[in-house]
Amino acid sequence: MKTKRLSVLVLFVLLSVNLAGCWNSRELNELAIVSGIGIDRVKDTGKLRVTFQVVNPSSTTTTQGASTNQSPISIYTVNDRTVFGALRRASKQATRQLFFAHAQLLVIGESLAEGGMNEVFDIFERSHELRLNTTVLVSRDTDAESILKVLLPQESVPSVGLGKKAENTSRVWGKPQRSVCLKRSRK
User: Fold this and answer.
1) What is the per-residue pLDDT for 187?
2) pTM for the whole structure
3) 111-142 burial code (b ≥16 CB/10 A, e <16)
4) In whole angstroms, what is the distance from residue 98 CA to residue 108 CA?
5) Which of 9, 106, 133, 141 has the fewest CB atoms found within 10 Å of its own CB?
6) How far apart are CA 58 and CA 49, in angstroms?
């Protein structure tokens, strides 16, 4: 009886060693943190132009950013037939792995918004990394890429500032903003 208990205990210890640890961990210095995503429909080809606003961590600190005059963001733009294809294709441009869990702003071009956005919201709903409570703006009379390139003097990360600006404008000039989230459907 004691040998059976001892063998079960040894088995649990060996199994717990396999479960512990960081087998799928990613180091911060190996990630490119995406703070904003812009999606436009290219008129001539019908493809999607997906723009990523990536945070430059060294230039967002208050002491180094002012002295180096380095932009707090980098912009990557990719054209593809699908949003998912653009996400994968963007990895060729970035030196680090794109990390979408902190994306706080989604800007959709007016032409894409008029034609339907099911594919855009589908990728947000299915992805384990993209957030369902991301602020969504529709660009009018300009493309989403141009909006993501705007630098705001009060905020070190422009997409965060644009989200706060939209919330503040809604609170001051319009009806109180209700938090709108996509619901995961159960099928």
Assistant:
1) 44
2) 0.72
3) ebbeeebeebbebbeeeeebbeebbbbebeee
4) 20
5) 141
6) 28
